[in-house]
Design a protein that fits this description.
437 residues; alpha/beta; 3-stranded mixed sheet; 15 helices
Length: 437
């Protein structure tokens, strides 16, 4: 099924596409390649557009230089081999924060992700860019609603066996949540991007839903719960995702738990090995990237667990230290520690200059592009947030910044304006020099 065409029809559009002039006037070009994206923008300019505008923009940016008047029926993921995740740039976009906020209700975060896709730089010649979306499953603190800026609505609490988040999908379209997620992945792949999702493992941060009884707290010692966890992840892989970002992965098996800040029990080490292997086996995918948060000190421990990359080992502040680390790990092709621009716990304080320096290090900190380390970025590293919020705040809360109850006002006020536009332009300059490598 061509889910992109189904999405267009569900949104009351025709499936006939035409070249998008607005996109052509805002296109950035990578040096020595046909890779293109939209730059020098603020997110409102994309989020205000229709789904058809977004899809026509994506097709207008085609690397093939061909324009498709109908979206293709078959889209393959960009092929960087089974170990692509060892070298990738991971960019987490908080899809809940850019959802459509109508007064106190939210929806359609995946449609907002589709609209933002044209402004995500595509993958380079030698390595992939991978979008991580922050929320897919229902939130246990108030799914489908926004709250005040200091009321808990943590994205780290999820409900399994209950479908998909009201924040993320639309029940008004007449197509299934699975079709909406598949359409997003097909469009991301057409853009030359990989895609993944954030997943928690702390037992008390998960609930299991049942039709005939109350929700229960997740229990890693319960085989039924483990099976539900695996199957939920497999379903997402079968919808086109290829990466799973694992929150608190460092502490699996009770490792370094004096620094553990999650809530509840964690899976045992061999248990997690089994789970990751089962996700690969049941989905039939050999190219899944499992990224472990902070899993980057005992490298062999995490490699043997089945992880592909680990975050928070080194920041991008010191270009030469990162380049030497890349040289040190160049023979380790199935797992590597990563360069961090920003993580999901960041509470502000990074200047634009520091962010740009870290992105520069992440994109160029190597002797050979084939030896690049993985890197990790957040929404604000591409589209800066307004001055009084930060990455961690919009993960822990879900405020609307709308002044009139409309999504457009929220999108306008969530992000920095003129300075954010100029910063986005500077990020584009860095990627323009990197994507031909």
């Amino acid at each position: 099924m061509n889910t992109v065409n189904e999405l267009l029809k569900a949104c009351k559009h025709t499936t006939q596409l035409k070249e998008d002039k607005w996109t052509q006037n805002h296109t950035y070009y990578a040096l020595n390649t046909n890779k293109k994206w939209i730059g020098n923008i603020v997110p409102l300019e994309l989020l205000n557009r229709t789904i058809k505008n977004a899809i026509e923009s994506i097709v207008t940016l085609s690397e093939s230089e061909m324009f498709f008047e109908q979206f293709p029926n078959i889209i393959e993921t960009p092929n960087y081999g089974d170990n692509w995740g060892r070298f990738a740039n991971y960019i987490e976009i908080n899809n809940r924060a850019i959802s459509e906020m109508h007064n106190e209700k939210d929806c359609c975060g995946i449609l907002s992700m589709i609209k933002i896709l044209p402004a995500i730089p595509p993958s380079a010649k030698s390595w992939a860019n991978c979008i991580i979306i922050s929320q897919i499953f229902p939130n246990i603190y108030g799914d489908g609603y926004n709250k005040g800026p200091f009321e808990e609505n943590s994205i780290y609490g999820i409900k399994l066996n209950a479908g998909y988040s009201e924040n993320i999908i639309s029940h008004q379209l007449g197509i299934t949540p699975e079709e909406q997620l598949r359409a997003f992945n097909d469009l991301a792949h057409f853009r030359g991007l990989k895609s993944g999702f954030r997943m928690v493992i702390s037992a008390d941060q998960m609930k299991v839903a049942y039709n005939d009884k109350d929700d229960v707290t997740f229990d890693w010692c319960n085989p039924e719960h483990q099976e539900i966890y695996i199957n939920e992840c497999v379903k997402l892989m079968n919808l086109g995702f290829e990466c799973m970002f694992i929150d608190s992965a460092k502490h699996i098996g009770g490792y370094d738990c004096e620094n553990y800040t999650g809530v509840g029990a964690l899976p045992e080490y061999p248990q997690m090995q089994y789970i990751l292997n089962e996700i690969r086996s049941r989905s039939g995918k050999t190219n899944i990237s499992f990224v472990g948060e902070k899993s980057s000190d005992d490298f062999e421990r995490y490699r043997l667990m089945g992880l592909t990359a680990g975050t928070d080992y080194i920041s991008g502040d010191d270009f030469y230290a990162v380049r030497e680390l890349s040289e040190k790990f160049k023979y380790l092709r199935d797992y590597a520690p990563g360069v961090e621009v920003e993580n999901d716990n960041n509470e502000g304080g990074l200047s634009y200059e520091q962010r740009l320096n870290r992105i520069n290090t992440a994109l160029f900190g190597f002797y050979l592009a084939s030896d690049k380390l993985p890197s990790f970025m957040q929404t604000g590293d591409i589209f800066p947030l307004r001055y009084d919020t930060n990455t961690h705040h919009i993960m822990m809360t879900n405020p609307s910044y709308s002044t009139d109850g409309t999504p457009e006002s929220h999108w306008e006020n969530l992000f920095a304006k003129d300075d954010g536009r100029f910063y986005n332009h500077k990020v584009g300059e860095l990627f323009a020099h990197a994507l031909g490598l």
